[in-house]
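User:
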Amino acid sequence: MIHGYHLIWPAYGFWLPNDPRGSWSDTVYSLELLRFGPTIKSIEKIPVDLDEYARWRTQAQRALKYPAVTFSELQIANIGMGFQSYVEKSGLSVWACAIMPNHVHMVLGRHRCKIEHAANLLKGAATKRLLAESLHPMESYREKEGRLPSMWGEGQWIVYLDSEESIINAIRYVNENPT
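Assistant: Predicted structure:
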């Protein structure tokens, strides 16, 4: 039985679908990114040569439509406030949270809605907060009709936690993630 979830989602441009370390992606939709290789679907992180990977990543990120997002400390604080507003409204149980400059980790208890839906609502609350504070990292890329590109990468990675041990391990991992 599922007791909780460890959610991980990237900021735009952080974990690309064809990342040599592996990804959950099935397809590389961007022709510009496809020249850097196909998807490498893997549950486990694949070891890579760090120098070679750094070169690959720099070149692949240059091929993105927009620059990769890196949140400032002020943006991170406001993302947390956005999460807090959703959590207070929804009653979602948050056991651990780490908002990093380029991705988010959360350990959550079971909830009445699907976890994918809760993740999207959390992202939306954070985005709404950054917009209200004029801190959205993609503001300079606003389209003519007023639409902004998403500051988040596609989807999220979900680890289903089915034991007390898995919950404790996920909480420890998230709490230690910033260091």
